[in-house]
Fold this protein.
Amino acid sequence: MYLNTRFVIILFYLILINLFVFFIRYADYVDSLFCFNCAENDLLYTEFDYVIVGCGSAGALVAQRLAKDKNVKILILEAGKQGSALLDIPSMGLLLQNTPYDWQYVTAPQTTSCFALDNNASHWPMGKIVGGTSMLNNMVYVRGHPEDFRQWFINRSNYDFMTDVLPYFEKLENDVHDDDLSGSMYLSDLVFKSSLPDLILKAGKELNFGISDVTNCKQGFGMPKVNMKQGKRWTSSHHLLKVKNRNVFLRTNRVAEKVLFRQNFEAYGVQYSHLGKSYSVKASRGIILSAGVIGTPKILLLSGIGPKTHLDKINIATKVNLPVGDNLQDHITTGLDLILLNQTLGIGIEQMLSPYSVFEYFWYGTGPWTTGGCEVLAFVYTDSTDVNRDTQPDLQFMVMPLGINEDTGVHLRHLMGISDYTWNNYFGYLNQTKAMTILPILLHPKSRGIVRLRDANVNSPPIIDPRYLTEQADIEVLLKGINLIKKLINTRSMQKLGAKLNTNIFPGCENFKFDSKAYWECYVRHLTITSYHPVGTCKMGHEQDVSAVVNYDFQVKGTNNLYVVDASVMPTITSGNVNGAVMMLAEMASDIIRSKDFFSRKKCSVIEIFVANDFC
């Protein structure tokens, strides 16, 4: 009887998924039809002060801050479309993958990892929508560890976290009130949680991990803050749209092709495409690229800014020889469905499809539809000889009450690209067994990848090669993470759920003894999963740093009036989810750009020496 009921639920789930995807694609098609009547005249004959490419976490926030000067005009070019209230439902973020709201990037085949994925390639969803990837993510907000930022600014004199970085986080988090729209981001506790968090926190205590401040990535276990307002997903673009600045012009369905230069160094405009035609728009004060860790280097390379040897191969004239596309880093993880349970945790497909869950969300803004998936975070430093809780962690755990087998493989596994062979010979064996997920996440990978152009055609997808697990040190940290998961499973708290290790042999690792180090290394190299946090392809650094693309003023080296503000400027990846750090950088960059513009155009009066002004 249970199997028949479960079959009906899964069938209903599959029908709803397909209806949702059909609705998204139909809405995209209808929107495109109406756009054939859209005119570009309002852009072609207007010179803006700033043109921002991308309306994601960084681009929307930079626009909002620059717009405080009512004398400037700002244009935002967004490649995607604007979403709807339906897409603000937190649990819908996952369903936007592999739709027109997703760039649907796929990496190059990996030679040392991802063996359990189709073509040995990792799927990298990234938002092609107003709000960017923050419309697809799990909404978890962390700052990062203070040591992360010291490493960024190690070559900058007089750097201090307390004065140079922390104030921007505080501004981001606290400058928001219902009656004050000058802020940036809403932070919320989890609105819905299963029965798992309380038990996991107790299990952590049994292993001598305390309840910690996970927002600052301190070692220990804790429940995360999320970017939600009244049960709805909230991004910096939501704030931008709600403020309705009259000097900000947002144009969607515009794909930036390249930056336009005078004398090969001074940026004065952007060439973009809309409905198959190319146009250009001018900016007098600056071009700001916030197209993301893949989009931004692609635009720079198409503009002739990048490694000369690469540009020569694809017949693009080099304007500035810089290491654009190098230094690619990502948080990687493993361990899907590694923990099996003998009971449910109060959330699953049945609860998500329940009419009461629908009522709860639309009437109260509560219930399982508000979940982003992650219910507990933990940060640890895996060197057992270091007992200092303030040490920068090298491993993160994301705890989720479900496994990927929850939908029996009809949808979720395709988003990750798990191969049929792997599914049928490992995950499929679980049948109706309940699973939960503790993902061990490598926080500071040694492996570095690249982004390159396939050719000079703007419509060709870029080559993304993260080169996962090319450094053995990365494997060692993940193996320590798996060992810690085994210890968590054996705590009294987790035994109340009947938690046990999945002992099915992973396909491809049959020649190794189960639970040996060699087996787990094989397992990790097969089941290598992105945490969707790539950064670093336009590294920020000192002007004399030959590995840097932008300087500490976020300006592309060797150019004028061209800035990059997004995750691509991170020299090294932060501890934990990166969206909070991206928005902090946007706050910092906005101040720098405004101050540079102020001092280039104005002089302080005598009275301003004594009376506070914006930058005097």
